[in-house]
Amino acid sequence: MSLPTLEDLLRSGVRGARVFVRADLNVPLRGGQVADDTRIRASIPTLERLAGAGARIAVASHLGRPRGERRPEFSLAPVAPLLAQHLGRPVAFSDDCVGPEADKAVASLREGEVVLLENLRFHPGEEANDEDFARSLARRADAYVNDAFGTAHRAHASTVGMVRFVERVAAGLLVLREVEHLRAVLEPRRPLLCILGGAKVSDKLGVLHALVERADAIAVGGAMAYTFLLALGHRVGNSRVEPDRVEDARRILERAEALGRDLLLPVDHRIARELTPDARVEVAEEIPEGFVGGDIGPRTEKRFAARAREVATLFWNGPMGVFELPPFAEGTRAVALAVAESPAHTVVGGGDSVAAVHRMGVADRITHLSTGGGASLEFIEGRTLPALAALER
């Protein structure tokens, strides 16, 4: 993969040029305020370089799922002040991303100035990758920069459709950094350990099939582990399982054994009658009827941590339990600490996993925190990401 870079674009000259930057500013909002500005901060380096080079910058993003309708609760307006604060320069806001309002906002920019356009997904043409909508976005762009890795697996108008209508295109610094570190998992220093968690085997079936071919060891936690345990004949009580994925899990286990891979499953569990914030938790090796598995147990934590100390490359995606409930958060916290203490090249992706390393105060000890959950999994799976393919073309 050879992507056109931001440095390539800057060398060609952008002073006075209208540069459309597709960023990922899909931040959580609470009470109309930004609750977590991680993605805003991640977009700053690319914007700083462009502004410093005298570009006239139009920043575009989606937020939430307004499903093609203008819904005030999904407006990007609260993002503009924080973007300005982190960028250290004013950021104007346009009430639309296409049409006269956007045209006027971009036309009024001077060198080094920035405008944030309203939510792309207020228009159905964005997710439909509609050609007319893509042309409309491209009309106000002399150059295009994609710095939204989290949407790289989506073929939308702002990530794919408009690219062919803009002469000069580039990958932003964030996208280039993501590709560099995720490629280190695809082409790893060995041994490679992948820790996967989350609720469903079906959500990660593709990446499981890919990693069993590539990784030296895979550690599985979260509710998805119960489907694997059921496939091996273990008792899982009332834990969440996917009966229609038991055979898939069995095939992955058989393939791992045939290839000599270590597929590590929980050997103990934190269980309760119900998964509630005040649940009475017990630790058990097997889960009896009437009980639900909510987290990996202490022995499993030590087992996963021991393997993390022995590898050269480590990828983690997904929580080890019902992380949002305090009684079932310890496994995820323990894995976060183990990943931080590993001597490996470490890549962490997925909202809960990234949140865990931040809460543990060890984010600065992780080699790379990925901003793309689904995109990072598809990249690791070896699939072509539409937005990256569009830039290559």
In terms of quaternary structure, the protein is single chain
Number of helices: 15
How many structural units, i.e. domains? 2
Largest sheet entry: 6 strands, parallel
Any guess at the CATH architecture of the largest domain? 3-Layer(aba) Sandwich
Taking the alpha carbons of the first and last residues, their distance comes to 11 Å
**Which secondary-structure class do the elements indicate?**
alpha/beta
Fold and architecture overview:
The model has no long low-confidence stretch (mean pLDDT 95). Helix 12 (330-341) links the parallel strand 15 (313-317) and strand 16. Helix 7 (173-186) packs across helix 14 (373-381), helix 8 packs across helix 14 (373-381) and helix 12 (330-341) crosses helix 13. The protein has two domains: 6-174, Phosphoglycerate kinase, N-terminal domain (Rossmann fold), CATH 3.40.50.1260; 188-381, 3-Layer(aba) Sandwich (Rossmann fold), CATH 3.40.50. The protein is 37% helix and 17% strand. The radius of gyration is 22 Å and the shape is elongated. The protein is an alpha/beta fold and 393 residues long. Strands 5-6-4-1-7-8 form a six-stranded parallel sheet. Strands 11-10-9-15-16-17 form a six-stranded parallel sheet, sandwiched between helices.
Summarize the structure.
This protein is an alpha/beta fold. It has 15 helices and 17 strands. Strand 15, helix 12 and strand 16 form a beta-alpha-beta unit.
Which SSEs are present, and which pair or pack?
Layout (H helix, E strand, L loop, with lengths): L5 H7 L5 E6 L5 E2 L2 E2 L3 H15 L3 E5 L18 H9 L3 E3 L5 H9 L6 E3 L7 H4 L3 H8 L4 E5 L20 E4 L1 H14 L5 E5 L8 H10 L2 E4 L3 H8 L14 H14 L2 E3 L4 E4 L9 E3 L7 E5 L1 H11 L4 E5 L12 H12 L3 E5 L1 H9 L8 E2 L3 H9 L4 H7 L1
Parallel strand pairs: 1-4, 1-7, 4-6, 5-6, 7-8, 9-10, 9-15, 10-11, 15-16, 16-17
Antiparallel strand pairs: 2-3, 12-13, 12-14
Helix pairs in contact: 2-3, 7-14, 8-10, 8-14, 9-10, 11-12, 12-13
